[in-house]
Specification:
Shape: globular
Helix content: 25-40%
Number of helices: 5
Radius of gyration: 15 Å
Structural class: alpha+beta
CATH class: Alpha Beta
Strand order of the largest sheet: 1-2-3-4
Bound molecules: coenzyme A
Number of strands: 7
Strand content: 25-35%
CATH architecture: 3-Layer(aba) Sandwich
CATH topology: Aminopeptidase
Order of helices and strands: EHHEEHEHEHEE
Distance between the termini: 27 Å
Largest sheet: 4 strands, antiparallel
Length: about 170
């Protein structure tokens, strides 16, 4: 199996990315952040790029990079990398969010995507990234701890307990 790479979405990804989006929706996880049926793929890609550049952000939003994890030309998951923390992100959202397609789990892809996302956030000048997950999400807990995450505390997000980890980016 080839190594995982993280890259931006492309025009040619439409069909596969939408399939992956539907698969993860069954887990309550949003692969394509902000995607709405009826939007054209071209317009969606423009919106994703504008979010990364910080153009036309909604109030309280910060620039964020969207990347797909790709192995052997297959999209296996995605990472979203917030460039800085807002009060909400500092409380429970964190810098980096990720998800892996059900059929591609338990092969180290989340760990590889988090490692590469940490490189990206380091290049933005962040020394330690906040990464959070549900208190009962064993896969995500192990992913974060494998990347060197140190638990600061657990906080409630509308009644859901979230673990807050600081992960060195260097
Ligand atoms: C959580 C999630 C990202 C893990 O992805 P993954 O690619 O399977 O994770 P990895 O293969 O990199 O596994 C990392 C570690 O977690 C362990 N792990 C993964 N899923 C697990 C599970 N369901 N139960 C127990 N351990 C699990 C792996 O064994 C590995 O640990 P190890 O190296 O000590 O053996 C994936 O299950 C997912 O996308 N879930 C839905 C969305 C989600 O929860 N996203 C995270 C939001 S914070």
């Amino acid at each position: 199996m080839a190594a995982l790479t993280l890259r931006p979405l492309r025009a040619a990804d439409e069909a596969e990315a939408l399939r992956a989006h539907d698969e993860l929706a069954a887990d309550g996880f949003e692969l394509l952040l902000g995607w709405e049926p009826g939007l054209s793929w071209a317009d969606y890609l423009v919106a994703v790029e504008r979010t990364e550049q910080g153009v036309g952000l909604a109030p309280g939003r910060v620039p964020a990079s969207f990347r797909v994890g790709v192995v052997d030309d297959r999209i296996v998951g995605r990472a979203s990398i917030r460039h800085r923390l807002t009060p909400y992100l500092l409380e429970v959202g964190g810098h980096i969010g990720y998800g892996v397609r059900p059929a591609d789990r338990r092969q180290g892809h989340a760990t590889a995507m988090l490692r590469l996302s940490l490189d990206l956030v380091r290049d933005l000048g962040v020394d330690r990234a906040l990464v959070t997950c549900d208190d009962d999400n064993v896969g995500s807990i192990r992913t974060i701890e494998r990347c060197g995450g140190e638990l600061e505390d657990t906080r409630s997000d509308a009644g859901v307990l979230k673990r807050r980890y600081w992960v060195p980016t260097g």
